[in-house]
């Protein structure tokens, strides 16, 4: 049987690893291109969803 707080400690460690990974990318100057790629993909996804909603809306009329 596991102690009660074991799962919370693992989650805290995972969050700490994520913070360190983002900090390392930021220090190396690699975070900015990654953010631009995420923003570009987000814009593309938003336009795609808008086009799909428009097609569904026209079909319902």
TrEMBL record:
Record-annotated membrane-spanning stretches: 12-31, 37-56
Alphabetical UniProt keywords: Membrane, Transmembrane, Transmembrane helix
Keyword Transmembrane appears in the UniProt entry: yes
Protein name, entry field: Uncharacterized protein
Record organism: Bifidobacterium dentium ATCC 27679
């Amino acid at each position: 049987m596991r102690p009660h707080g074991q799962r919370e400690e693992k989650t805290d460690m995972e969050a700490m690893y994520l913070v360190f990974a983002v900090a390392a990318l930021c220090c190396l100057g690699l975070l900015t291109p990654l953010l631009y790629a995420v923003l570009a993909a987000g814009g593309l996804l938003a336009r795609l969803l808008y086009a799909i909603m428009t097609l569904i809306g026209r079909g319902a009329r």
